[in-house]
User: What shape does this take?
Amino acid sequence: MHLKRWLTAIVALPLLYFLIGPGPRWLFYSVIFIFSMGGLAEFYRMAAPDLPQPVRFANHLLSLVLFAALYFRQVLLVPLVLLLWSLVTLTFFLFVRPGPDARGTGEMGKGVLGPLYVTVPLSLFLLIDMQPGGKTWIFFLLCVIFAGDSGAFYAGKLFGSRKLYEAVSPAKTWEGALGGLFCSIVVAYGFHRLIPMRCPVGHALVLGGLLCIAGQVGDLAESMLKRNHGIKDSSGMLPGHGGILDRIDGVLFAIPLLYGYLLYTMA
Assistant: This one.
């Protein structure tokens, strides 16, 4: 398992550097979109296997519209897409499955939750990338989250004894969580020292810690979903890492936090 994790990372990291850094922006945005589609499909397969195919198709299509709107700087279309995720789902159930069925309400909620959970956070990567120094901020976020993830994994293996949240993820410990937090802050400090950033070092340290905490909450949230549905991994797409959601669960919760920070500091 450890070998597969490192081999996957070794293969993925140079490609990730190219996509975020010198690669053409359309290629980077396309890869983010593909991850969004894959993550959304995993969510529906895991949490809403009975969701009607037309609803899935419509929500995937609206995700494409959202990414296209951001790519072409048509930001005014974004609220419309967010609204249509709800309206299209409700309209389908209204005319196709109007009978009294309490489970239908749950399926409608899951249909809308999927894009809000997966697509919207990943789409914010486009807006972050369009900001001054956006590439640097994306690298910062990923370095901090990946450092926290690896630090938590190995600190938990070596020192873990006190359960962090046994009802959701029995394997996670407080020692692992604190080890991940420490690694994230250290990486945030090193990143700030090595690469010019548009923020004071204190901001970088606090932000690194908060991003790590958000990432750990995101990890627990996906663990809850998997535990609710009795599965170990969202898929087997990435050897040693599980599925797309297993790899980006923390990133999904950290992206909005970073985007909020950038909005605040650039206002």
